[in-house]
Every structure is written in structure tokens, then in C-alpha cells.
Design goal:
By secondary structure, this protein is an alpha/beta fold. The chain has eleven helices and 13 strands. Helix 3 runs parallel beside helix 5. The longest helix is centred in the N-terminal third of the chain and has 22 residues. The model has no long low-confidence stretch (mean pLDDT about 95). Bound molecules: UDP-4-deoxy-4-formamido-beta-L-arabinopyranose (WQD). UDP-4-deoxy-4-formamido-beta-L-arabinopyranose (WQD) binds next to helix 7 and strand 8.
Amino acid sequence: MKKIIVTGGTGYIGSHTCVELINSGFEVIIIDDLSNSTIEVLDGIKKITGIKPEFYKIDLANAKETLRCFDTINNISGVIHFAAYKAVGESVSLPLKYYKNNLNSLINILETMQGKSFKNLIFSSSCTVYGQAEKLPVTEQSPIIKADSPYGNTKQISEEIIYDTINSTENLKAISLRYFNPIGAHESAEIGELPIGEPNNLVPYITQTAAGIRKQLRIFGNDYNTPDGTAIRDYIHVTDLAKAHISALSRLVNNENKTNYEVFNIGTGKGDSVLEVVNTFEKVTGIKLNYKIVNRRPGDIEQIWADTSYSEKNLRSKTEKSLGDALLSAWNWEKKYRNIT
Ligand code: WQD
């Protein structure tokens, strides 16, 4: 059975990817510092798959800890690297925390992989590298625009670090997956998005408002140059996103990659506005949401969605779930987590 290290594997996207890895016959080893997730996620993975992954609580930004941990692990077929801080707003107020953690973790992993001759890396990147693109939908060849947050900049710099490292060696292959907006939860509602404190992202804010935890959803701006004035994003069900990782990993493990460093957009190829998300949530759940329009949120872009033709062709991964499926799954997770019947 091929062994895969998943860093950040108790996180939102990491845990859903571990489920799909196990379902695809891989053995999963999770490394996480639990700074933004809980150990109970392992129980959720076990409830879904029947397997509780091997787990190491490690600060990957610490080179010694990382090396010591990897030294105990052998015959790894690949590493999927999710572990990073990802709150855009926090990264603006604490840039060094983000550069230190996100870049040192990646550098330690690359150095350790080289030392152990593990050669397949999947990196969790983001559509934030495109900024506000001139031309939509964005393709993998769309220009990379200077990020407007340290978080987004760590993703851009990380891609460059991987690219330069790969060009210096024969023994490393990597794929960066540029996520659009991951939403929703596993259909079992045993795992899902678990923001600590007040959610930054739209969908957890919606489900917490519906659950009565938040009083009212604020819609940040309806004066954008879009059909209904609210901002547009490409919302992809987290399970579809997780499955794209299996496709990317298989591409490397089976030596189907065309070059040693490849980049793919992982989205649905469809843009939805904030109001369309709200209206779809109300439709699929039957719940009327309490919201008000407020000013734009600083740093937000107006609209982005993916051209998925290149990733669909090369990864043979196509999204199966709709916006409604994702929003209903997010609500089912919220209800189960809060014991709401
Ligand atoms: C979506 C839309 C908000 C909250 C972030 C990260 C990005 C990626 C995806 C990791 C925007 C609006 C939001 C609210 C609102 N993550 N909104 N009220 O900002 O597109 O991207 O998640 O890779 O890196 O930056 O996602 O969910 O915060 O916002 O009106 O309470 O919803 O203005 O238009 P975003 P988001």
C-alpha cells in the first residue's frame, strides 16, 4: 500500500483529502501542529473510512522537529503539503508570523524530502496568486499579480521556491494546485470546516448565521461591476477539491507528468455572486437568512473564476457537485456539529 504524508491533514481541506486518499487505497500519515484544527478530526476520518491515520504533532517550521519526524517514516510515495496559516486579514496584521511559518515549513519539507529521496510533492496553492485578473476566466497562464496580502504572497513565493528547487535537482517532481473557493463538507457530516472564532469566509458565516450563532450576515459591497453588484467567486465542493489531489498524486506516482513542475487551477469553472450563494442556501435549506449589505471589505477582488479545461484534460478530474450540494452539506455539518436537529 502506497504511503502518503499529509501535512495539515487535520485541517479542513487536508482531512477531506485524507478520506479520499484512504478510499483510494493509500496509507495516510498526518503531520499537523494542531494550531488551527483539533485532534478529534482523526475520529471523524475513522468514522468515515474505518481507519484512524497515523498522526505526528510537529511544528514543521522547526527544522530539527521536521527532520526527526521524517526520519521515523520510510517508503513514502508522496507528500501533500497543506500545513500553512491562511487567514488573509491576520496575515496583514502579522506578516512575519505568516512568512516565518508558511515559508520555513515548506523549506524544511523540501530539504527533508531531498534528504530522504522522497520525490513526489503536491502543494496547496491558491487562486489569490492571480489577484484581480484582467481577463476572466483565469487560466494557468494568466499573469501572476503581486498579492495584496502576505498570505497570498507566501503562496506566490512558495511556488517559486518549489520551482527553483526542482530546477536544481533530478529527484523531485511537484504539482501546485491553485484552489478557488473551497466550501461544504463530507456528505457524512463527520468532518467539515471548523473556523476558530468569528469566520472570515462567507459560507461558514452563512451557516453560523442560520444556526443562530451569528446575528446577521454582512454582505461586503453590492456596488461591484457585476450583474447583481455583489462579488463573484468560484465555489468548489471540498470533496471535489479533495479528489483533485488524488488525481494529481496519481499523475506523479504513475509518471504521467509532462514536466517536473506543473500547475493546475482547481475550481468549477463557474462564478457565483455572494447574493446567488445566499439565495441558493435559502433555497436548498428552506432557511431565510438575516443579512444586510455593508461596505466592501478591504483587499477583496471583484470577481474571479477558473478556466478548468487544462486541469480537466490533464488531471481527468471534473467537479461533480453543485453549489446547492455544497451549501446543503455545509449546513448539515453545522447542524451535526452544533447538535441542531
Ligand atoms: C468570498 C466572498 C467576500 C464573508 C478566501 C481566501 C483565498 C482562498 C478562498 C485559500 C467575498 C464575501 C465574505 C462575509 C461577505 N482561501 N463575504 N461576507 O476572500 O474569496 O478567498 O478564501 O486559499 O485565499 O482569501 O473568500 O469566503 O472570505 O469571501 O460578503 O461575512 O464573500 O467579500 O466577496 P475569499 P471569502
